[in-house]
Amino acid sequence: MPVMSITKPHLGLPALLLLFLRALVLGLLTTAPLLQHANGAMVELPQVLGSAMNVSAAMGKTAKLQCKVNNLNKYKVAWFHMDRQMLLTIDTIVVTRIPRFSVTRDDEITWTLHIQDVSKEDRGEYYCQLNTEPVTNQKVFLNVV
Fold first, then answer.
1. Is the Cβ–Cβ distance between 113 and 92 less than 8 Å?
2. Which positions fall inside the Ig-like domain (predicted)?
3. Looking at residue 128, what is its pLDDT?
4. Is the pLDDT of residue 107 over 60?
5. What is the reported pLDDT for 34?
6. How confident is the model over 129-141, as a mean pLDDT?
7. pTM for this entry
8. What residues does each domain of the chain span?
9. Which of 40, 61, 86, 138 is most buried, by the most CB atoms less than 10 A from its CB?
């Protein structure tokens, strides 16, 4: 008995691009990461907008470190100072005992860490972190001049 081979049709780049565009228009693809809940609903995971930043503040003044987060939903934003290995805030609650730190939610997507009376010890890497799995974060480097 002769053996027959079946080959799949080869899709060239234009055909693949057309399929991709159709899927995008039909909503089958999204640029935002998705998470499937136990009830089967698909929701967008939060995303930190932007990339690592450098902020400078004069000694004795107030430093403002910003983080913009899209689609926060039920997740929380926390601020962490890497050099001190210290969690500073969770949501709008300050958890550090250093009274110079405060946090505000300026609008739906903007979280600002305020550091009053900035000192040299405040210099270093700060992370705006989301409690997603895996963790999502954005680095902000504070330079004190």
1. no
2. 46-143
3. 96
4. yes
5. 56
6. 91
7. 0.72
8. 13-43, 46-144
9. 138
CA atoms within 13 A on the CB side of 47: 11
For residue 81, count other CB atoms closer than 10 A to its CB.
Answer: 22
Can you read off the two tokens belonging to residue 70? 């899209």
CA-wise closest residue to 135 among 45, 8, 42:
45
CATH code that applies to domain 46-144:
2.60.40.10
pLDDT band at 60 (very low <50, low <70, confident <90, very high): very high
Q: How far apart are CA 131 and CA 99, in angstroms?
A: 24
Give 77's contacts (C-beta < 8 A, 6+ positions apart). Answer: 67, 69, 89, 90, 91, 111, 128, 129, 130
Secondary structure of 129-141 in the HEC alphabet?
A: EECCCCCEEEEEE
**From CA 94, how far away is CA 104, in angstroms rounded?**
10
